[in-house]
């Protein structure tokens, strides 16, 4: 089996890059959802949630860039169109206009749950199949952020 430029075997790494592209597509849909929540939040928690949603979409934007660059490092091209994002994402778009604060937070928690599941699959794929500790380490950082933020949002909803 051929070895790529960073010392990993080609076939498992190409499969890992495909898996990362699925994660990237999900992040793109999540990113836009959080932007919509940021723009459309109304209610008693406006100031807190408006700032928090901005923090989340800024974090997602950085994560998206890291994912795309890792996919390129592994020798593939990242998906880069909304058609590809929608096709490859298990996270679905929602309309945030008129959505209550609680429903927005629930939507973000649902996205986080799906992203966490995907990230755990990527970590397993990276370590067990591709021998790619670099990708696993990167994804573990993303995972920790979402686990902590999920706990905080669950505390906010009172559904801890």
UniProtKB/TrEMBL annotation:
Source species, domain of life: Bacteria
Coiled coil regions in record: none
InterPro entries (UniProt xref): DPS_DNA-bd (IPR002177), DPS_DNA-bd_CS (IPR023188), Ferritin-like (IPR012347), Ferritin-like_SF (IPR009078), Ferritin_DPS_dom (IPR008331)
Single annotated GO MF: ferric iron binding
Any Pfam family matching the protein: Ferritin
Domain Ferritin/DPS: 18-158
Family: Belongs to the Dps family.
Protein name (database record): DNA starvation/stationary phase protection protein
Species for this entry: Pelobium manganitolerans
């Amino acid at each position: 089996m051929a070895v790529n430029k960073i010392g990993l075997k080609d076939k498992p790494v190409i499969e890992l890059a495909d898996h990362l592209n699925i994660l990237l597509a999900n992040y793109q849909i999540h990113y836009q959802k959080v932007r919509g929540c940021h723009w459309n939040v109304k209610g008693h928690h406006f100031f807190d949630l408006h700032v928090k949603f901005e923090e989340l979409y800024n974090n997602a934007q950085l994560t998206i860039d890291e994912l795309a660059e890792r996919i390129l490092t592994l020798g593939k091209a990242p998906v880069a169109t909304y058609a590809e994002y929608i096709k490859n994402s298990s996270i679905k778009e929602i309309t945030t206009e008129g959505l209550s604060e609680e429903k927005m937070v629930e939507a973000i928690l649902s996205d986080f749950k799906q992203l966490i599941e995907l990230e755990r699959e990527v970590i397993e794929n990276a370590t067990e199949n591709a021998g790619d500790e670099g990708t696993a380490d990167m994804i573990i950082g993303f995972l920790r952020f979402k686990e902590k933020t999920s706990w905080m949002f669950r505390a906010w909803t009172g559904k801890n």
